[in-house]
Amino acid sequence: MKPMKKIALLLMASAAAVLSAQTAQAQLPDDIDPMSFSRLPLLLKDTLDAEGQAIFETINGGEGNVPRIGPPNNSMYSIGPSEPFDVLNQRLRRTIVGREFFEISTLVPAREFNQQYEWTAHEMGAQRAGVDQEVIDVIKFNRPVTDLPEREATVIEFGRMMLRGDHQVSSEMFAKMVDLFGRQGTIEITMIMGDYTMTAMLLNVVDQHLPPDREPLLPME
Fold it and tell me: Transmembrane residues, as ranges (predicted)?
């Protein structure tokens, strides 16, 4: 490709990206900050006291002044609880249930709360973890679990039982979960779903939007 043609194409791509970002920002509701894409502006590290700055660095994994958008920025508006909230999340990523069932357990509450930001991040995470797209789509489109493998079907039904109706789990469902995942695995899956229920509620309250470079993957109902 000739140098001038290559430069022209790069300029066109750059202009298209800028236009796309501007269009996305123009479509944001009036109460959404254009930098954080939520109702809460970015919480900069240098606005916090020494203890808050230490927590900021722990949660964001570095010494920069700008937080990661999404759960970190929003949870740090309550800086003390944001630290154990983050610690719990990190520990739940290293349980005996493994990456595939961790991701499945995040998707169920994301779907139940129609939480686009959470869903989009964890659908991609589930794909990377090797979760079959059929399993993802059963959750995404609220389909019956009839044709899924037993373990995947049971976890989805377990989550739906907790998050719908009277929020109670039957003796039969509990016994089946323990049979398939053990007592520890059953409690860990419950805690993962609880953690991501809390995250979904947080993100819904602040109306967290996706940045313009991320395609929404959850069909909203």
Answer: none
* Confidence (pTM): 0.87
Sign of CA dihedral 145, 148, 154, 158: negative
Q: For residue 193, count other CB atoms closer than 10 A to its CB.
A: 24
Write down all domains in the chain, each with its CATH number in brackets: 40-92 (no CATH), 96-205 (1.20.1290.10)
CB 191 within 8 A of CB 217: no
In the chain, how long is the greatest CA-to-CA distance? 70
Residues 6 or more apart whose CB falls under 8 angstroms from that of 166 comprise none
Mean pLDDT in each 10-residue stretch from start to end of the chain (221 residues)? Answer: 49 43 66 98 97 96 92 98 97 97 98 98 98 98 98 98 98 98 98 98 98 94 66
Measured distance CA(48)–CA(200) in Å, rounded: 25
Burial of 106 (0-12, 13-18, 19+ CB in 10 A): buried
**What is the rounded CA–CA span in Å between residue 86 and residue 1?**
48
Sign of CA dihedral 57, 60, 63, 65: negative
